[in-house]
Design brief:
The complex is a heterodimer of chains A (518) and B (329). With 518 residues, chain A is mainly alpha-helical. Chain A contains 20 helices and four strands. In chain A, helix 3 links the parallel strand 1 and strand 2. In chain A, helix 13 packs antiparallel against helix 17. Classes of the chains: A mainly alpha (518), B alpha/beta (329).
Chain lengths: 518, 329
């Protein structure tokens, strides 16, 4: 039947018309046909190459050079009580609050600030109470009111945390001031207690009626001083945190005060002769108290107010700059998006232009079609990825782990992402639908891959979605290899391999059905 | 249905093939055969089932009834070796706009497993054949419609098929290029290939060895173009112009009596002095018919007489009308 008049020397056939090229070679030739076709088509699209390589590169550079920090700027107004806060200047308030908040205004006009808040010109209004110290001494709990109009839940979380930190700082400052006052008071009382010891010794030896009144006044003055000190002392928990002796300060004061009160009563009732035991106990307690006061006065203020301190160190010297930290994610996202976009258009375009009909007539199998396309796109995306990696290296992004494993994760990520792209292509009825689905996959990747939001932040129904995204596994693998210098976990390999295999099978099944109806 | 009688080996043999898509669409009771080394033209209006007929013969569609063999095999059971013997030019331009002429041709050739060296040699021959040598490196998107068609023809021939299906290859191209295409096809036929060519251009029937006229999924007739003309008109027509138009009725009477030769006599719609005489073979019977009229007394003077060249458009319309009449009966 084959007459071969145009190719008079057709070497691939014997005289009987039988094909002499081995089947395996024909298989390779057909796979190469699709491979070369894809490579040639892509290289003829300079704009596509630009958008796929240079575009992401520019995005990365812009991100790296402009990202400052992740703490939001909270525009804040501070509303002072009428007449301001005595003893504290606006500048001091700005210095204190400005640590965490961007203080735009300090005013007494609450209504005006609330109006600005409602208009979105401010993010936060802080309303300070009139006199915190006086309120505390009056037994009240003063309150700083924070009013926010945040619409971003992350910003609101930040504002609540910063408000908590600010109140903690204020409480600590108040505590410090009170403790300092207590130390001053204790130093004075310590001298008074030495006098009190002399007075008790005098009582022990017996006092004249003429000294009785002066002695009683002295004892009463000591009792008042001890009461004042008790009121100023830091909480018992803070004192106890300093050790056993300071833990006993408050009980010592109470015992000394009790003994002095008994002596006062005895002087009053003229029964000192019957109170020799109390006098001895008072003498001993005052001696003990003196020691405790000495210790209290000499204890550093910071140690009393903040008994627990922190020591932080990063075993790698420090965290990476944000641009470096996000680079593995950006790389994974760009590799995946490029692969999905190219894959999404690959089959639908052929189907719509009627090429499937030609493929069905030709002695070519579906596996040759798909493998050829996989190879063509993989080569191109791998080259684009190489350019991106070089650019990242110039930006200072390290690769601490194995190059071989890194190449393996990239390859698997490309294949898995192409599988998802081909699946989109097989399911799409048009080019625009394929692009739309590719964009949805991009959106899903940004939210559910752990790029910006940790996977632990999601309820369990989101996890199957998250783990079906190639980027989720690629990102984890890249972070381990690039930033930590450790191999990817088995889940990274397994996840990417599973997505690759499942998507390939689905693409083959769906495309086979489409080919049959072509 | 008629079959093409032949003693040669058949490239395609179809027996009572039916594939019903519902709502009257599909192909029905198709019996035809295509001898090797011939051109079968499938002619019919859009939607009459030409493409479906080709797709069944290519194994792309499975018939619900009947049997068909293409190159001796049931098409739905084609092996790779069978497919390598077949070339196909679909209706749409399915070559790639961003590949050059050479790359497009090489791509199609590679699908058929041709090694690169063989592809290069074959490509040079074929691009010369379809006059695309100068455009070898031009991208598909920069080709004119005619060049794209020629490229598709070259692509379909790269693997040197024995049987070529061309689905409306001349649709939408100018008459000069159409004639060139038929030139290509006839050359391929002369080289021994079998071609199945579908077309809506009825006048192209003249280029075919056999023509299948199709309507509503059925093959109304399949035969040589000449035989189809006879079939449609009941024979061949001699166009006679009399000197005296008043003699037309007498002449008609004389010829109608000669019923062993004259099948039908009717007035020409073009002129009152004209007669159309239907006979088996116009050239053979023309002198006898003239003698018959001029021997009568008084003599009927014939001003002119010649076989009437009826266009294939008219033949086609006639066959369609006959089928439509049968359908209404």
């Amino acid at each position: 039947m084959a007459n071969a008049p145009l190719a008079s020397d057709a070497p691939a056939k014997t005289s009987s018309g039988k094909v002499t090229i081995p089947n395996w070679r024909r298989w390779l030739i057909r796979v190469r046909a699709y491979f070369l076709k894809e490579v040639n088509e892509i290289r003829r699209q300079p704009l596509l190459i630009l958008s796929l390589i240079v575009g992401p590169l520019l995005v990365l550079i812009l991100f790296g050079t402009t990202y400052v920090n992740s703490t939001p700027r909270v525009r804040t107004a501070v509303v002072l009580p009428p007449g301001g806060i005595s003893g504290i200047s606006a500048e001091q308030i700005r210095a204190l609050i400005g640590t965490n908040f961007d203080v735009l205004k300090i005013t007494e006009d609450r209504a005006a600030m609330e109006a600005m808040l409602a208009a979105g010109e401010l993010d936060l209004v802080q309303i300070l109470p009139p006199n915190i110290t006086a309120a505390l001494q009056g037994g009240e709990t003063p309150q700083i009111i924070f009013q926010s109009n945040a619409i971003n839940p992350l910003s609101e979380g930040w504002i609540q945390y910063l408000a908590y930190a600010e109140v903690n700082e204020i409480n600590k400052a108040i505590l410090s001031a009170t403790a300092a006052q207590a130390q001053q008071e204790a130093a004075a009382i310590k001298l008074r207690m030495i006098d009190a010891q002399g007075t008790v010794t005098e009582l022990e030896q017996g006092i004249s009626a003429a000294r009785k009144q002066a002695t009683q006044a002295n004892i009463r003055e000591s009792i008042r001083a001890l009461d004042t000190l008790t009121a100023l002392l830091p909480a018992q928990e803070l004192l106890a945190a300093q050790g056993g002796e300071l833990a006993e300060l408050r009980p010592n004061i109470a015992r000394a005060r009790g003994n002095l009160a008994l002596l006062d009563t005895a002087i009053e009732n003229d029964t000192l002769g019957k109170s020799l035991a109390e006098i001895a106990a008072a003498k001993s307690d005052l001696l003990l108290l003196n020691g405790s006061l000495e210790l209290f006065v000499n204890t550093p203020l910071e140690r009393i107010v903040s008994p627990v301190t922190q020591s932080y160190s990063n075993t790698r010297g420090g965290a990476y700059p944000a641009v470096v930290y996000y680079s593995p994610g950006v790389l994974a996202l760009l590799v995946q998006h490029t692969a999905i976009t190219l894959g999404a258009l690959a089959l639908v375009r052929e189907r719509l232009m009627g090429a499937f009909e030609v493929f069905r007539v030709a002695p070519v199998s579906l596996s040759q079609l798909i493998i050829g396309k996989y190879l063509g796109y993989t080569l191109f995306i791998a080259l684009a990825t190489l350019v991106l990696i070089l650019a990242m290296a110039l930006l200072g992004v390290p690769l601490l782990g194995s190059w071989l494993q890194f190449a393996g994760v990239i390859l698997l990520l490309i294949v898995a992402s192409l599988g998802v792209g081909f699946l989109i292509s097989a399911l799409s009825g048009s080019d625009s639908q394929a692009i739309q689905l590719a964009m949805i996959s991009l959106l899903m990747s940004i939210f559910f891959s752990g790029f910006f939001i940790a996977l632990e932040s999601f309820a369990w129904p989101a996890l199957p979605v998250a783990y079906s995204i190639p980027m989720t596994h690629g990102l984890a693998g890249f972070q381990n290899l690039m930033l930590r210098g450790i191999p990817p976990t088995p889940w990274t390999w397994l996840g990417l391999a599973l997505i690759s295999v499942v998507s390939f099978i689905l693409v083959v099944v769906i495309t086979r059905r489409q080919l049959r109806s072509a | 249905m008629t079959t093409t009688a032949t003693t040669r080996t058949l490239a395609i043999s179809s027996q009572q093939i039916e594939l019903d898509f519902g709502n009257g669409a599909g192909i029905f009771d198709q019996t035809y055969s295509v001898p090797e080394g011939t051109i079968l033209g499938m002619i019919g209006p859009s939607g009459c089932g030409k493409t479906t007929t080709c797709r069944v013969a290519l194994g792309l569609l499975t018939p619900q009834k009947g049997t068909i063999t293409t190159l001796g095999q049931t098409p739905t059971r084609f092996r790779a070796e069978d497919r390598e013997q077949i070339g196909y030019i679909p209706q749409q331009f399915v070559l790639y706009p961003r590949l050059s002429v050479a790359e497009n041709a090489a791509f199609v050739a590679s699908l058929y497993g041709m090694p690169a060296r063989q592809v290069r040699r074959r490509m040079d021959e074929l691009l010369a054949f379809v006059d695309l040598t100068d455009a070898k490196h031009r991208l598909g998107q920069n080709l004119s419609g005619g060049m794209q068609r020629r490229l598709m023809l070259a692509g379909a021939l790269m693997h040197d098929p024995a049987l070529l299906f061309a689905d409306e290859p001349t649709a939408g191209i100018d008459p000069v290029l159409r004639a060139r295409f038929w030139g290509f096809f006839r050359q391929l036929r002369d080289e021994g290939r079998t071609l199945v060519v579908t077309t809506q251009v009825v006048s192209e029937a003249i280029y075919c060895d056999f023509v299948a006229v199709m309507r509503k999924g059925r093959i109304l007739a399949v035969d040589t173009p000449q035989n189809l003309r006879r079939l449609a008109l009941g024979g061949e027509i001699i166009d006679i112009t009399l000197e005296n138009p008043d003699e037309v009725s007498r002449a008609m009477g004389i010829l109608k009596e000669w019923d062993e030769v004259v099948k039908e006599v009717r007035r020409s719609p073009k002129s009152e002095a004209d007669l159309h005489v239907v006979v088996d073979d116009a050239r053979e019977w023309l002198p006898e018919v003239l003698n018959k009229l001029e021997r009568k007394r008084p003599k009927i003077v014939v001003a002119s007489a010649a076989p009437l060249e009826v266009s294939y458009d008219e033949v086609f319309i006639k066959i369609m009308e006959q089928d439509a009449k049968q359908e209404t009966k």
